[in-house]
Amino acid sequence: MPELETIIGLEVHAQMNTKTKMFCGCDNDAFGKQPNTTVCPICMGHPGTLPVPNREAIMKAIKASLALRCTVNRENHFDRKHYFYPDLPAGFQISQYDFPLASKGIVRYELHESSGKTASRHKCNITRLHMENDAGKLTHRGKKTLCDYNRAGTPLMEIVTEPDLRSADEASAFAQELRRILIAVDASEADMFKGMMRFDASISLREKGTKKLNPRSEIKNLNSFKALEKALQYEEKRLRKLWEQDGGPLKCDITVGWLDEEEKTRLLREKETADDYRYFPEPDIPPMVLDERMIEEIRATLPMLPEEQKAQYLALGLDEKQADQLIDQPRLRAIFDAVHKKTGDAKRTSSIVLTQLLGFLNTHGRPVEEGPDATAILALIRKIDDGTISANAAKDVLGKMVETGKAPAAIIEEEGMQQISDDSAIQELVSQAIAANPQAIESFKNGKEAALGAIVGWVMKESRGQADPKKVNEMLKQSIAQ
Ligand code: ZN
Ligand code: MN
Fold first, then answer.
1. d(CA 17, CA 224)
2. How far apart are the CA of 131 and the centre of ligand 1, in A?
3. What is the mean pLDDT of residues 83-111?
4. Which domains does the chain have, with CATH numbers?
5. 146 Cα: distance to centroid of ligand 1 (angstroms)
């Protein structure tokens, strides 16, 4: 057996988060709506209707293309791609064939150890990004099939990679980075649970050191990172076994489906020739000529991309796992950024947001969305900074905020957690502490600085954490010196 190398390329379909569909004015958000209620004659493919390209979709697709470091093609056009299937009302999809919106990009991504540390850095070239419309959704029930066309006409970006990926892990890590980029530029919500991002993965083997691409197996319609990984792992093993049996690669390209429950692939078709979709230029939409200035204007609005975001968080002193947590959870990031902006202290911010807040959310089994928002956390921090509560007590308040959803002020009031900053009350406690800890006082007087900590601790305990430790410290030193 020669040493074999695995070659993987992906085609990714991502639904765009535009207000309306790709070629008509129908509501593009069909989530939770009755079947066939966000449709019109255009997206139902009625004869005599005219498609009008969605400007918002084009702008967002250009932004995504630039974020993927693609060249946006000044001249591109739409084509009809013909196939017959009940989820495609017009009998053709309006796509882009030989003149796509963008080509030749690159995505850098990392593989991680389980600790979150970067294990290796990689890049994957992007062949193209083009726009098209989504098909409807079929639900098979026994012998019957239900058709819902709400999704028909939703704008899609199809992103095709070069066969640059070498393992299931690489494919998954790349796909996750791609998702982060699409979310960062607000081109797609890329919500995997809602099927907003779907993958077709092509996999083949070749002898290490050779350059030729052998016939590949294409796994259709994977809609989670888990499915992408598992399907590729399964198919890779299967192709290796076949190579062993046959002494070589597949004889022709094949298409397979992934059976999620059985965790295996199933042959859909073998093909000697490429599918003939009878592409031709869409006669109802004139070619698009994009203005260079407009492209540059869009480039100027590009937000910070995940790669830079991560570098920035690492520079603040966060570890890789913390940085990834922030990048993958926009709401958590918003809280972190707001707190950091206010405090200017990354260490303090990460202790409050990434250690305490995430810890409490975990304990109570709540997603970040259901926990306190940035405003509530900032209100808590103000209570620490203005001396109302100690940092220690604040931790308890935060726990209660997660548990009850109440505002910090209300919790402090109800629980009587206000810090004692009244000097005479603290002085009283300090005097008691000195009387109660003669040995510690003795050691402190003999130069053992650490002994003071024990006495401060005693006061804090007596005051149930409500004394201001800074004040306690000062007053203790004064009293002992007298
Ligand atoms: Zn419509
Ligand atoms: Mn497509």
1. 19
2. 17
3. 95
4. 4-298 (no CATH), 329-415 (no CATH), 423-481 (1.10.10.410)
5. 19
